[in-house]
Amino acid sequence: MAHHNLATPLSEEAVRQLKVRDTVTVNGHIFGIRDATQIRMFDEKQVPPVDLKGAICLHTAPSLKKVGDKWEKICVGTTTSIRMERFTPPLIEKYGVRAIVGKSGLLEGSLEAMKKFGACYLAIVGGAAALETQQIEEVEEVYWEDLHPEAIYKFRVKDFGPLIVAMDSHGNHLYFDVYSQAKQKLPEIYGELGVA
């Protein structure tokens, strides 16, 4: 296990150095996205109005308020990633996204895309929205504002994290490992409970 301080945009080389169970802190920019954003991109086939090459994307529908021309953060939490599985391989392949930040992990299709193109999944602690919000210095831009709270948000971040590398570009998957270990322990647990 190692700790990495990453600056965006990410290169493939930087991502290939990350291994499952490493920790990461991010400085630079993170793009907030969610279901509606990706439905527009992939189902409605609209090209996003911002370059996502080398980007880190955060699964979020943030609580923000608009004051004049600026958006102010209220609370930026993270949502569950797994339901966005179908969007992740094309997000990586077509738009060059290098990392996804979220909760719950993703599945085999995303893992294969991460291996092929050099991307990763960074797990964030659930329920830590207050800390996460403090680590976002500013909401610099909101694209596709009509989709708010599921637009594209350009957040400037400082010391964002620590995040855990839960899926890496080498085919390793922390959630699958934990599931496998838990499954192996089930017979022992059932035995202690007297369940056949």
Describe the protein in words.
- Helix content is 30%, strand content 32%.
- It is built from six helices and nine strands; from the N terminus they run βαβαβββαβαβαββα.
- It has helices at residues 12-16, 35-43, 88-95, 108-117, 129-135, 174-193; strands spanning 3-7, 23-33, 56-59, 63-67, 70-75, 99-102, 120-123, 136-143, 152-167.
- Helix 3 runs parallel beside helix 4 (108-117).
- The protein is an alpha/beta fold.
- The chain has a single domain (3-193), classed as Fe-S hydro-lyase, tartrate dehydratase beta-type, catalytic domain (fumarase).
Please state the average pLDDT score.
94
Please list the strands of the largest sheet in the order they lie side by side. 2-3-6-7-9
Number of helices: 6
Separation of the first and last Cα atoms: 39 Å
CATH class: Alpha Beta
Q: Hey, roughly how much beta strand do the residues contain?
A: 25-35%
* Poorly predicted spans: none
**Portion of residues in helices?**
25-40%
Count of extended strands: 9
Largest sheet: 5 strands, mixed, barrel
Note the overall shape.
globular
The CATH topology label is fumarase
Task: Give the SSE string.
Answer: EHEHEEEHEHEHEEH
**What is the rounded Rg?**
18 Å
User: What is the level-2 CATH architecture name?
Assistant: Alpha-Beta Barrel
